[in-house]
Structure formats: C-alpha cells, structure tokens
Amino acid sequence: MFDIRNMVHEYFRRDEEGNVTGITTAVDHVNLQVAPGDFIAILGHNGSGKSTLAKHLNAILYPSEGSVWVDGMDTRDEEKLMAIRQTTGMVFQNPDNQIIAQLVEEDVGFGPENLGVPTDEIWQRVEESLKAVGMYEYRKKSPNRLSGGQKQRVSIAGVLAMHPKCIVLDEPTAMLDPSGRREVIRAARALNDVERITVILITHYMEEVVWADHIYVMDHGKVAMEGTPKEIFSRVEELLALRLSVPQVTLLAHELKKRGLPLPAGILTRDELVKELVKLKSRR
Ligand code: ADP
Ligand code: MG
User: Fold this and answer.
1) Looking at the DSSP assignment, which residues form a beta bridge with residue 21?
2) 203 CA distance to ligand 2 centroid (A)?
3) Which atom of ligand 1 has the smallest separation from the CA of 45?
4) Does a structural domain hold residue 24?
5) At 127, which CATH number?
6) What is the side-by-side order of every strand in the sheet holding 198-202?
C-alpha cells in the first residue's frame, strides 16, 4: 500500500522578504512499508514530524530526498496525482474545518459528487458510509448539532464515500472528550476489520494504539522505535524518555516488575494483568 524509502522532507524558513533563512528537516530518512489491510499507528510528541509524513501519503507534499510510493504510484508522478488522492483519504484533527454542508447526508455526499459519481450511486455510498461509522440515524440532522465524536465520524464517512483503499487519520481524537475518542477509534477499527481498509492512525494517546498491527514512534523526524504493540510497550523507559505516556496498566505492571514480581513485559490490558497476577498467586 505504501512504500517510503529513505524519505527526507525539508521546510524552508523565510524572512518577511521571502529570503530563505534556514531549513527545518521535518522528516529525516524515514523508511516505512505498509501492506494492504494493515492497521498502523504512528506515535510521537508535537513536532516529531508525524503530520509532515502523513501529508506525503496522498501527495500533499513531495519528498526532498528519497521516494514515496502509494499503491505502486510514485507521488512525484504528476499524472498520478488524482489517482493517489483517491487512494488515500485524510481525516484531520478539527472536525469543524472538515464539515461544510447543512445536512449530514449532504456532507457525506459532497466528496463522491466532486468525483463525478452518478447520483444514484452517491446515495448508496452515503448510506453505506454512514452505517459503517454508526451515524445513519443522524443523516437528516445538521452537523452543527452533533458532538465532537459524532462530527468526526461524519468526516470519516465523507472520506469513506470516496471509496479509498486507505484512510490516514491525523490526531482525529485530539479535540474530543474520552467518549468521543472511543467512538472514533471504534469506527476506525471497524473500517479496518470489516471493510479491510488500510488505516494509518496518528495519535499521542497510547490507549488507542494497543490494537494496531504495527507501531512507529517518531522523534525529531526519525523513526525512533518500531514494532508490535507488545514489543513497543515492553520498552517503558524508552517511551518515557521520548516524552510519551504509557497506558496505566502497562505502567503498573512495569512498576510491579521493577519491585521484583516476575511478570512478563508489555502487558497491555487489565485482563492480562489480572490473569498474570492470579497465575503468580497460584504458584505460591
Ligand atoms: P507533528 O505532526 O509530529 O507535530 P509536524 O510534521 O507538524 O510534526 O512538524 C515537524 C517539524 O516541521 C516541526 O519542527 C515544525 O515546526 C516544522 N513544520 C511543520 N510544518 C511546517 C511548515 N509549513 N513550514 C515550516 N516548518 C514546518
Ligand atoms: Mg501533527
């Protein structure tokens, strides 16, 4: 789905007259491969290069060095621009900037309409997409009256209606309350599980990535860590050094282990911890 090779992205800093005063290397020799159907999470604190990387996945930005391939297409090939934009759908942080229509169903239909999809098919896609994110019963409502989590699910439906192979969500839950965050993550997981859409989730909430197939942790434009959630969450000290939080259960298990309890590394859920503690107790 994606093949990123030795990719560098440089931004030019300019003064008021437009003269270049310096260069920021936002992405620094990143390699990343994503197979179709994967659920990939990208973590990293502010400024680590996550959004810049995301914008390469549908050719909003081009590499300064190296290359980015999207479903076999080079993002620098101008003839492939439309095809690339249709392959990768993007969902951003602020749902209020992404919703434009007066009614939920019109908003979701806007994308396919722009693509020139015939009217009958637009309605069919709107229905399917709203059902996929659990927002079908809100189709006749005004987006303004929805909660943040509901708005964000409408944004996801709008992208889905364009039938992308992949959806990139750039901190889609950053502005939401805990229940809104859960709704959005549940919707993203369902797209991956049920519709087999490739999902790239960028976030700094650790609890949201325990389901991912593979995690990349970015720091200063580089991939600082990568692995399965279990592998990543076994490296608690490194995550803390990268200024990332760790799920509470994982941290508790880590502290107990440091104090001498023989627990396995990388415990991700409460059930797992309880099971391991019961095992220890029955051994005594
Ligand atoms: P993140 O999404 O992880 O917060 P970004 O990709 O937004 O990181 O930013 C990475 C680095 O690139 C930061 O140092 C940021 O200041 C810089 N940067 C981002 N966008 C621009 C831009 N349009 N022009 C110049 N520098 C930018
Ligand atoms: Mg960002």
Assistant:
1) none
2) 9
3) 3
4) yes
5) 3.40.50.300
6) 88-91, 166-170, 198-202, 39-43, 214-219, 222-227
